[in-house]
Amino acid sequence: MAIEMEMEFEKESPKIYRFPQSKYIDALRWIPSPSSAFDRFISLALHDPDTDSSSIEIHSLTNQNPSLHLESSWTSSSRISALKVSQTPSKTLIAASSFDGSLNLLLTNPLNVVIESENSISDKDFHVGPISGIDLNGGGSECVTVGEDGRVNLVNVGESSLGYKTVFDSHGLVSYAAVKWASPYEFATGGLGFSLQWWDQRKPGGAVSQLKGDWARRSKSGIVHSIDIHPSRKHVCVAGGSSGTIFAWDLRWQQQPILLSWVDAQVGGVNSPSESEVWEVQYDAYMQSQNVSNTSSTRVLPVMMCSEDGILASIEQGGKQVEVLGETSSINSFDIDLQNPSDVVCSLEWESVVFVSRQ
């Protein structure tokens, strides 16, 4: 019997602004800028198929009559596979990994976000092939990278140089697709078969805990594309992947995941706004603020997702789903502005940046 999902739309439709681009957008991220009251900044990872060139561009987004304006750019030697941003009062750091196995760290001026310096790692012993996932810790002092080659590396971000060490190397037996810091010492990884691993630098030698992807027959052939961990609940990891699947892994009860969104063709069950690949998941602070009375410590906080079939939606445990945006092309990446959680930017496969204001 089919499971009916509860799909809701917000009482007031969000304001949507589209900004066409001349290049393919691989990823995008907000750049926090507390010094500017009038503009906000967005980092774009771009690829031009006509010239086979890739770059990172920083654009300002005006608050009045929203529009994008190019502020700074940097050319990459290879197509960018993942993009992250870390901001402190003294610096803004942009990390970009690539399909050729290199990692680039760009330091920008926190006042005008102009790119001032760069450091990179392209050592053949760093990664072989694409780096599929990266994450910067809160202070931007360490970057963790994972790849299809099965390597997990920790990069020490110095003022003028980068050093790294290999935490684990499966020699290709395991492929990782996503990674997320949980604390200064802990992080989670995910990959094929809807598997998740938990790592603790204080306990070297491998993952200290693992969720194997055999918890449901439908999940064996899936893959985790994205992971998020809430800063106040580091023990709960949410993941999104194949066939519209989003689930949470609570380290207090490790054996069984908490399904938030799924499609099960074997029994005809559908409880997902999407039936395709979930490219990215993030905890949705805006929806959390709207549901402050329903945030017990055992309940998974609301999550936002974007998908290959063009859905941007917020999902709550128990089946409630709010569609924020529906497009005819894939939504490849999105980011929630932590300073203004009602605001979201996302990238469309059809070469457009979309700014969504839910206020």
TrEMBL record:
<dbReference type="InterPro" id="IPR015943">
    <property type="entry name" value="WD40/YVTN_repeat-like_dom_sf"/>
</dbReference>
<keyword id="KW-0853">WD repeat</keyword>
<protein>
    <recommendedName>
        <fullName>Nucleoporin Nup43</fullName>
    </recommendedName>
</protein>
<dbReference type="InterPro" id="IPR001680">
    <property type="entry name" value="WD40_rpt"/>
</dbReference>
<dbReference type="InterPro" id="IPR036322">
    <property type="entry name" value="WD40_repeat_dom_sf"/>
</dbReference>
<keyword id="KW-0539">Nucleus</keyword>
<keyword id="KW-0677">Repeat</keyword>
<dbReference type="GO" id="GO:0031080">
    <property type="term" value="C:nuclear pore outer ring"/>
</dbReference>
